[in-house]
Design goal:
By secondary structure, the chain is mostly beta strands. It contains one helix and 23 strands. The protein has one helix at 2-19; strands at 52-59, 62-68, 78-86, 93-102, 112-121, 126-134, 142-148, 156-161, 171-175, 181-187, 191-197, 204-211, 216-223, 226-232, 243-247, 258-259, 271-279, 284-292, 302-307, 309-311, 314-316, 323-325, 332-334. The longest helix is centred in the N-terminal third of the chain and has 18 residues, at 2-19. The structure holds beta-D-galactopyranose. The site of beta-D-galactopyranose has 9 residues, from strand 5 and strand 13. Beta-D-galactopyranose binds at residues 53, 114-115, 170, 216-217, 236-237, 271.
Length: 341
C-alpha cells in the first residue's frame, strides 16, 4: 500500500517542483526555472509547449516561437500553427493558434503543413509566415505563405509555390546580422538550397548556395565571421546523426559535413530545426533547437535545446542537461537544481 502512495505522490511532487512556483494570482501562471532538454516543457498555463518544427524571431525584447500545433483533440482536417511569447526563452506564454487552415489547395486527406517560420518585414510592417505544404504522399513539395499585421495573428493564407521552381520539403529560416532574410529548403534531387527572400518577403528571389548534401531540418547561424549550417539526414521521424559545415559566405564554398554530436547518440534523439544567437552584454550564446519526435504521439514530441560549443570552424552539441540562460548578459550555465522527467 505504502509503495502505491509513493508511486502517486513522488511524481506529483516532482512535477510541481519542475513547473516551478505557482503564483497565487487568479489566472494561475506557471514559472519555469530552467531549460530541460527532452522534458515536458510547460507553458504559462502548465500545458506542454506545442511548437514543433518551429522557428523563433525577436521583436524588440520579445521572442516569438511559432511551430506545429499538435495537441490532442484538434479537427483532423485542419492544420494549426501556434505562437508563444517569452522574454527569457525559458518561460513561454501561449498566444493561441495564429493560423488555422483547412486544406486551402484541395490536397486531400492527411495533407501536410509543417515547419512554419515567420519573418517580420519592417518595410511593409507585415509578418510573413512560410510553411511546408504538401499532400499525404509528400509529392507536392511546395512552400506556402500566410500573412498577418501582428505577430500574434491572425495569419491569412495567401499562396503556394515552389521556391525558384525547385522541390521544397523541410524549410528553415535564417536572418543574418544585417537583417537580410533567407529561406533554407530541402530540394530532394539536389541537396539543400539557401535563398534570399524578395524585398517584401512575399517570394524567394535569389539563390545564394546549392549545398549538394541531402539534408533536412536545415538551420544556419552567423558566428564570429563564419556561417555554420546544420541539418539532419533523411530518415523521417527517426533521429540520425546531424551534421554541420561552415563557409566564409552564404555563397560558399561550404566545407565537408562533420558530426555535431557522437554519431551513436543520433543527436541525442533530436532533429535540428533552428539555431538562435543570443547576444548579451558579455557574450553571445548559440542555442541548438531540435525536435525529439514521437510520431505516434506527436502531441508529446519534445524539444532538445542546448547551447552549442562553437567557434574557429568547429561546432559541437554537448550532452543535454538542464541549463539556464541570462538574456541580458548572454551567458548560460548548467542548472544545478534541474529535475528532468
Ligand atoms: C522528417 C521531417 C519532418 C517530417 C517528417 C515526416 O524528416 O524533418 O518535418 O516531414 O520527416 O516523415
Amino acid at each position: 500500500m505504502k509503495k502505491n502512495y509513493f508511486l502517486i505522490l513522488v511524481p506529483a511532487i516532482l512535477s510541481v517542483c519542475f513547473t516551478g512556483c505557482v503564483t497565487g494570482k487568479k489566472n494561475k501562471s506557471v514559472a519555469v526555472s530552467s531549460i530541460q532538454p527532452g522534458a515536458v516543457w510547460p507553458d504559462d498555463k502548465g500545458n506542454h509547449v506545442q511548437a514543433h518544427g518551429g522557428g523563433i524571431i525577436k521583436i524588440k525584447n520579445v521572442y516569438y516561437w511559432y511551430g506545429e500545433e499538435r495537441r490532442q483533440g484538434l479537427d483532423s482536417n485542419t492544420r494549426y500553427v501556434s505562437c508563444y511569447t517569452s522574454n527569457d526563452l525559458t518561460n513561454w506564454k501561449f498566444e493561441g493558434d495564429v493560423l488555422k487552415l483547412t486544406d486551402p489547395e484541395h490536397l486531400g486527406r492527411r495533407w501536410v503543413l509543417e515547419r512554419p517560420k515567420v519573418f517580420y518585414n519592417a518595410a511593409t510592417n507585415k509578418y510573413v509566415m512560410y510553411l511546408h505544404i504538401d499532400d499525404a504522399s509528400y509529392k507536392l513539395a511546395s512552400v506556402a505563405i500566410a500573412v498577418s499585421d501582428a505577430p500574434d495573428g491572425n495569419f491569412r493564407y495567401v499562396k503556394m509555390f515552389r521556391p525558384l521552381g525547385h522541390e521544397s520539403r523541410d524549410i528553415g529560416q535564417f536572418i543574418d546580422d544585417d537583417g537580410t532574410a533567407y529561406l533554407v529548403f530541402e530540394d530532394r534531387p539536389f541537396g539543400f538550397r539557401i535563398a534570399k527572400l524578395s524585398a517584401d518577403y512575399m517570394g524567394v528571389e535569389k539563390e545564394m548556395s546549392l549545398v549538394k548534401e541531402h539534408m533536412e531540418g536545415g538551420a544556419i547561424v552567423h558566428y564570429d565571421g563564419l556561417y555554420y549550417a546544420i541539418g539532419s539526414a533523411l530518415t523521417g521521424w527517426k533521429a540520425n546523426p546531424n551534421k554541420y559545415a561552415t563557409a566564409p559566405s552564404l555563397e560558399g564554398p561550404w566545407s565537408d559535413f562533420k558530426d555535431i554530436a557522437p554519431p551513436m547518440s543520433n543527436t541525442y534523439g533530436a532533429q535540428s530545426t533552428m539555431m538562435i544567437k543570443v547576444t548579451g552584454t558579455d557574450t553571445s550564446t548559440i542555442i541548438f533547437m531540435g525536435d525529439i519526435w514521437r510520431p505516434r504521439t506527436q502531441w508529446d514530441s519534445r524539444y532538445l535545446w542546448m547551447p552549442l560549443q562553437i567557434g574557429g570552424g568547429k561546432l559541437w552539441l554537448p550532452e543535454p542537461k538542464p541549463w539556464v540562460i541570462d538574456i541580458k548578459t548572454g551567458k548560460w550555465k548548467y542548472s544545478i537544481n534541474g529535475i528532468t522527467n
